[in-house]
Amino acid sequence: MDDINLHYRFLNWRRRIRDVRAVRFQERYKRMLKNGDTLSYQGNSDEVGCYVAPRPLSKGNCYFEVTIMDTGVRGTIAVGLVPQFYKLDHQPGWLPQSVAYHADDGKLYDGNPVGQQFGPKCNRGDRIGCGIYCDTIEAGLTTVFFTKNGKEVGSLVFPAAAEGLFPAIGMHSLGEEVRLDLQAEWDMEEADSIMMVDSHEDDWGRLYDIRVTGTLLEYVGKGKSILDVGLAQARQPLSTRCHYFEVEIVDAGEKCYIALGLARRDYPKNRHPGWSQGSVAYHADDGKIFHGSGVGEPFGPRCIEGDIMGCGIMFPRDYILDGEDDIDEWDPLEVLPRQGEGRIQNILYLNDEEEEEEGGELDQEHDGRKVMVFFTRNGKLMGRREVVVPPGGFYPTVGMLSSGEKVKVDLHPLSG
Fold first, then answer.
1. Residue 389 · residue 366 · CB < 8 Å
2. Cα(416)–Cα(402) distance, integer angstroms
3. Burial 31-66 (b: 16+ CB within 10 A, else e)
4. Euclidean distance between CA atoms 47 and 255, whole angstroms
5. Cβ–Cβ under 8 Å, residues 272 and 400
6. What gap in Å lies between CA 77 and CA 123, rounded to an integer?
7. Which residues are CB-neighbours of 140 under 8 A, at least 6 positions away?
């Protein structure tokens, strides 16, 4: 009889252990919908939604990543580490023993609802990573670090809870959606090489729904309407020292709605280059040129995957832009291969009267500071257009509008 009681006591003990383990390794989330590795906010924007992973970070799995699929209304997405039984109606980082990097303001929240400036803001398409340096665990402390698109943003020494630090994601506005990768990998050597490649991100002054990886630009917008334009604008305008740039179509995506051109610095972010005043662009999908208007005119052939589109300015030799004190001697047609010079033709220009009407106000305002903008395709001149330079100059600008589009950009093709 004692043996039977002992046997049942042993079975109950094993059952309790199994129940504890089930609780320990069960993911927890509130006001979120989980579909595979995708999490989407399901609240009313007044209440926080929070997800806590089933297992803490460990030596064998010390890093995870979150890709922002949609920023929703406010982009209030947080990525960080929390205790196992963290309150699910608070953003990670708001309560003690939790820490998080918040996408909407780039701040670090370290157990406090008031954050401190930490890194850049994050947008749709960005990847936010969080990890621990396992070799730094000493006396209950560990080093927690955060990354953006594979580059380390910063780190801090953080108390390591007895049960471990669990990956957590917070969201707080309608439409927010992320993709979670709890098996992501990251190491310092790879990060150093990525940082060298991604240094090209500094070449861009404005990026909207465009992800930069080295010289590659990838459209990450919705692509559902003309308001979903992805825009990349260079940090520096074209000048007499750097008067030409090129784009290679790596992937035409669904529609090849790719545009290459020049635009003023404050160009609207949801408008393709060429659609609004202060811009001119050659569009790959229809071969048309757009000059400050949503209606284009035939200009050259359509461009497809593998084609290289170029854009430059033929500056007058006495032209000075924003304080340039010397002007390099150059031939505007040096950008073209010798083999194509004999076939350079284009008689498709805007009607002179229409062009005067369109740019009249700008001409008067800037005393007729006109330049000749030209476009190339695979090294051959497609045509040119006389335009008025806006205040501050013309900035290389690339627009994309359909899923899957990727281009490789060379902002200095003549420097080598």
1. yes
2. 33
3. bbeeeeeebbbbbebeebbbbbbeebbeeebbbbbb
4. 39
5. no
6. 10
7. 159, 160
- In whole angstroms, give the CA distance from residue 264 to residue 278: 5
**Beta bridge partner(s), residue 212:** 217
CB 237 within 8 A of CB 205: no
Q: SS3 for the chain, per residue?
A: CHHHHHHHHHHHHHHHHHHHHHHHCCCEEECEEEECCEEEECCCCCCCEEEECCCCCECCECEEEEEEEEECCCCCCEEEEECCCCCCCCCCCCCCCCEEEECCCCEEEECCCCCEECCCCCCCCCEEEEEEEEEEEECCEEEEEEEECCEEEEEEEEECCCCCCEEEEEECCCCEEEEEECCCCCCHHHHHHHHHHHHHHHHEEEEECEEEECCEEEECCCCCCHHHCEEEEECCCCCCCCCEEEEEEEEECCCCCCEEEEECCCCCCCCCCCCCCCEEEEECCCCEEEECCCCCEECCCCCCCCCEEEEEEECCCCCCCCCCCCCCCCCHHHHCCHHHHHHCCCCCCCCHHHHHHHHHHHHHHCCCCEEEEEEEECCEEEEEEEEECCCCCCEEEEEECCCCEEEEEECCCCCC
Quote the tokens at residue 177: 């959606």
Each of the 416 residues of the chain gets a pLDDT tens digit; together they read 555 555 556 556 555 544 444 445 688 988 899 999 999 999 888 899 999 999 999 888 899 999 999 999 999 999 999 999 999 999 999 999 999 999 999 999 999 999 988 888 899 889 999 999 876 665 578 889 999 988 888 888 888 778 899 999 999 999 999 999 999 987 655 554 444 444 466 788 888 999 888 899 999 988 888 889 999 999 899 988 889 999 999 999 999 999 999 999 999 988 999 999 999 999 999 999 999 999 999 999 999 999 999 999 998 877 665 444 433 333 433 334 333 333 223 322 233 333 333 433 333 333 448 899 999 999 999 999 999 999 889 999 999 999 999 999 999 887 54
From CA 371, how far away is CA 360, in angstroms rounded?
15
